[in-house]
UniProtKB/TrEMBL annotation:
This is F-box domain-containing protein. Residues 524-533 have a biased composition (Basic and acidic residues). It comes from the Eukaryota. Gene3D superfamilies: 1.20.1280.50, Ribonuclease Inhibitor. Pfam families: DUF7885 (PF25372), F-box-like (PF12937), LRR_6 (PF13516). Residues 512-533 are annotated as: Disordered.
Amino acid sequence: MGQGASSSCTPKQATSAIWRIRDGEDLTVSLPDECLSMVFAKLVCQDRNACSLVCKRWNLVDAQSRQRLVLVARSDLSPLLPALLSRFSAVSAVSLKCSRKLVSVDDNALSLIARGLPSLSKLKLKGCVDLSDEGLSAFSLLCLSLSKLSCASCSFAAKGVNSILSNCPRLQDLTLKRLRKLDAHNTTLGSSPPPQQDSIEQSKCSEGSKFAPNLERLCLKDQHNARLFAPLLRAAKALKTLIVCRSSGSWDPVLDNLSPTVTDIQVENVQLSDSGLVAISSACYALEVLYISRVSDCSDAGLSAIAVSCRKLRKVHIDACSKFGNRNFVGDHGVMSMAAKCPHLQEVVLMGIPITVLSLDALASNCLALERMALCNTDTVGDSELGFVAAKFSALKKLCIKNCPITDPGVEALVVGCPNLVKLKVKRCRGVSQASVSRLRVERKALVVSVDPGSFSFEEDEMGIEEEAAIAEPGDDRGRPRRHFTTTTTHLVCGSRGASLLKSKLRSSKMLLRRPSFPSTSNPHEDATHSHR
């Protein structure tokens, strides 16, 4: 498969070979099991399940080659597990999902999975509210080869997670989402002693020496009490990616424990200030990806500290909008510092940041490898700034402009600017007309231009009911003239705030058009026209 034939075959020979096949002969008999398993791997779940019931051989090949199971983890699954695990003993990834309103599988079911799947390396638990710390601890002792664990909306606490961290040395990827009882016993992650250890080993583990030695990715979403994770970050000496989203508590002191191996940091909707950014800059000299969205108190000073220490940055995403209120802000100074100190930048996304031509000039002059840029939600990016981008950013391949006061001259500047641009996205820019976008598409046919309909400026005659003519036809049984409306244009409505306003206007127009009109003694054609108006 995927290789050329070793010998050529003429159409006549192929046809004769087909006719030599006896009626009812199964051509897959001569197909090796390896090839059949590759075919099964290309099928969607329902088709594969159906194919596994064709014959005993297909059933066996499917069972031996299936690597992943997704199970509805209700309590009634437990009696079926022994037969299921016996059939699919080669599975290496299991996903257990259950509604939090239902009774889920319990600790015994989790132990059965660990015993029945010796090759299990990836486990995902969602809504398994009947799993306890003891069940997770027993599982960790049976599944030493676990490399990836994702837990969401479960009821176990830090004790169960710590047992995984201490007893599964191959763990590389850990995701914790909405574990409301994680801080129930005020136990931190990465510091409590693991189960079934003597006092000497307990003291060693309390220092974090045996917790998560190979952990490379940590994702925390919708968690409480940031300080619970400080010992874990201190113990994760091989950590490369840290993702924190919608988790309460101050993260400034927690980030002091980061390992110098971290290359990717993403924080969103958390309490973070310049002190946290300074902590990142002090520890993560190899940082390549920085994603900061809707944090509390980050400013130019914090970004400047990052720029001075993290010279290997390739991707920067900064969203200045914050649910905490912007007591400080990021502006030209922070962006200029980053542009001057980080020449390897390839992607820059700036949202809600009042940058000017000064920042754009610094990016164009120092970041010669910049290929992707997005400028969103700022009033300081207009036609002159977009014209500057078109003139100076010769290496740019993808550009996104969203909710900025640009108009047709700014878009038309891209007709000759940015020679390497392959994709342009314009969203919620009311000053852009369809004519300028059409011209850009005509002049640069290789450029993919994506413009949401909410970006176009709608005039009074372009509200979806334009060029409608009310033509009176012979009356109906009630004596009223029938109307015939003709529309030469069709407008698509996007799901934005502007589209909601447009939708309400269209609804009002539609209600007006539905009002009954009664004929008078005058010309019926004139009556229809007046009623339409």
